Amino acid sequence: MKKICLVTPCILPVPAVQGGAIETLVTMLVEQNEIAHKVNLIIVSYESKEARQLSKDYKYTRIIYMKTKPENDKLFYLKRNLLIMSVRPDYIVAEGGNYSSFVLLSRLFGRERMFLHLHHEMYGFGRILQTFGTMIAVSDFIKQGYAAGRKEVLDSSVVVKNCVDEKKFRKRITLEQREHIRKELGFREDDFVAIFCGRIIKEKGVEELIDAVNRIEEHKIKLLLIGSINFGLEGDSDYLQRIRSKVDKSNGKIKFSGYVPHKELYQFYQASDLQIVPSIWDDPAPLVVLEGILSELPVISARSGGIPEYLEGAGGVLVDKGNAINDESAAADFSVKLEREILELYYNVEKRNELKELMHNYGKDISVKKYYDDFTQVFTK
Q1: pLDDT digits 0-9 by tens, 114-156
Q2: Which of 81, 188, 289, 381 is the most buried (most CB within 10 A)?
Q3: Rounded distance, CA 272 to CA 266, Å?
Q4: SS3 of residue 197 by DSSP
Q5: What residues are paired with 233 via a beta bridge?
Q6: Confidence band (pLDDT; 50, 70, 90) for 85?
Q7: H-run or E-run covering 143
Q8: Residue whose C-alpha is closest to residue 290's, from 236, 184, 346, 367
Q9: Do 70 and 10 meet the contact criterion of CB atoms below 8 Å apart?
Q10: What DSSP designation does 139 have?
């Protein structure tokens, strides 16, 4: 049975007790492998006591925990590479981080045994192409950007779409629970609540969304912000302070919960009426889109990166963002478009119900099993 070593950036732990898209995806692969056991997994991860304790239950996965982070240890990559060499995997998969640190491993194991699981936009520069023999992209948008039209790169690349744990986000709450959550947040039962879930950073378009909601005069339209600047870790920034200031001035229209543990998120989706994903950068494939689909929420999203590929067939409203990431005028125009689409879905109940039905049907095909099968097939063909 093949031994596959998944090397995380070693910033957050696996299992994903502190969140993180990459860490969450790796955790799902590990847990599904405990059921299907098509391969033996080796995970290189940053250590936490909680993650280490949970990992003791895994039978078919070995987790190599690094006690330091790359930025705090000059010898980090040497130590990591020596540990990987000692377990002699059949394949090595870079899940992010410093890709140049894999050059030595590529020379020792051979380029054909090196895989790049690309979760972000990047071009296939010479040294990267010489290091990795196969690229696994999270969207065709990422694949096309990496290949830049080169046939040999396209031929050695494959798309494996992301996934979320369908069991978590297909959970439903009672009307009493919904009312309780809304009351705790300061919302009324007849409010129309839009939810944003993600990192509170400029690239995610949070400020443009807040401005859109603050301009809306309909007092029943509210916004729930969930997230932090650095996943489950504490932190602050000038941008976050600006967001907090605008929330404080919203007269209760906007509530900011901060970070919410992943296992509790489904309740907040279920207590909402609409999901908004206003990314103003080229977002490769945010997991929150899939969370919204499984929660059967109508989705308003920026036409950003790989997002349209994930919403194709699921409905959803796509809004052109233009160059909002770099141009204040474009950002203001994007905010106005968001405002218009929020109002459209608020008043058009029939359209909302149509989108919910599309989400329901599309969500039937989302599963951790499918993601695991698609991923492992790359190595077991």
Answers
A1: 999 999 988 777 889 999 999 999 999 999 999 999 999 999 9
A2: 289
A3: 10
A4: strand
A5: 230
A6: very high
A7: helix 140-147
A8: 367
A9: yes
A10: S
The Cα–Cα gap between 337 and 294 comes to 25
Beta strands in 259-319 (DSSP E): 274-277, 299-302, 317-319
43 beta partners: 6, 63
Nearest 10 degrees: CA dihedral of 335, 337, 343, 345? -120
pTM of the entire structure? 0.89
Average pLDDT over residues 44-72: 96
Residue 240 is predicted with a pLDDT of 93
- Give the model's pLDDT for residue 234: 62
pLDDT over threshold 90, residue 241: yes
Give DSSP secondary structure letters for 90-110. SEEEE-SS-GGGGHHHHHHH-
> Which residues partner with 316 through β-bridges?
none
Cis peptide before 15 (omega within 30 of 0): yes
b/e per residue, 205-221, with b = 16+ CB within 10 A?
Answer: bbbbbbbbbbebeeeeb
Chain centroid to Cα 66, Å, comes to: 23
Q: Where are the beta strands (DSSP E) in the chain?
A: 3-7, 40-46, 61-66, 91-94, 114-118, 134-137, 157-159, 192-197, 221-226, 254-258, 274-277, 299-302, 317-319
The whole-number pLDDT of residue 380 equals: 82
What lies within 8 Å, CB to CB, of 320 at 6+ separation is: 302, 303, 334, 337
- Given a cut of 60, whether residue 233 has pLDDT beyond it is no
> Cα(334)–Cα(137) distance, rounded to whole angstroms?
28
Phi then psi for residue 327, to 5 deg, are -125, 120
What is the share, in percent, of the chain residues with pLDDT greater than 70?
A: 99
| Three-class DSSP category at 160 | coil
3-state secondary structure of 145: helix
Nearest to 321 by CA among 345, 297, 305, 298: 305
Task: Write the DSSP symbol of residue 71.
Answer: G
Show the tokens assigned to 185.
């947040």
Read off the tokens for 16.
């994903």
- Flag whether pLDDT at 18 surpasses 90: no
pLDDT at 232 > cutoff 70 = no
d(CA 232, CA 155): 38
